[in-house]
Amino acid sequence: MIGERVKKYRQEKRMSMTELAEKAGVAKSYLSSIERNIQQNPSILFLEKVSAALGIPMDALLHDQQENNTVDREWVKIAEEAMDSGITKEQFREFIEFNKWKLGNK
């Protein structure tokens, strides 16, 4: 449940509900109702504000996943740039293999 994940990340960051509400710019009462699963369908805007205040990707609030399984946003951006530039998967794999070879021959 989203509320449980919000509470978990808030507590991991050692933030009070008041601190998170103020930092995210949301009502403490609404945040409380989310955490207690009274309100179970928060808006995307709410999730964006709370995830930014917690310093986590919004996906972490939406999906039950362990932190060490999340992909670094910078890597995602690099992969997107590669795709946008027209590099194929095979070309990308060849680059990785070449780089491994080059590092191994130093």
TrEMBL record:
List, in alphabetical order, the Gene Ontology terms for molecular function in this entry. DNA binding; DNA-binding transcription factor activity; protein dimerization activity
Per the UniProt entry, what species is this protein from, by scientific name?
A: [Bacillus] enclensis
SUPFAM superfamilies per the UniProt record, alphabetical: lambda repressor-like DNA-binding domains, SinR repressor dimerisation domain-like
Q: What is the lineage of its organism?
A: Bacteria, Bacillati, Bacillota, Bacilli, Bacillales
A Pfam match? SinI
Q: Which GO terms describe its cellular component?
A: cytosol
Sequence ranges assigned to domain HTH cro/C1-type in this UniProt record: 6-61
Q: Which UniProt keywords apply?
A: DNA-binding
Q: What is this protein's record name?
A: Transcriptional regulator
Q: Which residues form the Sin domain?
A: 62-100
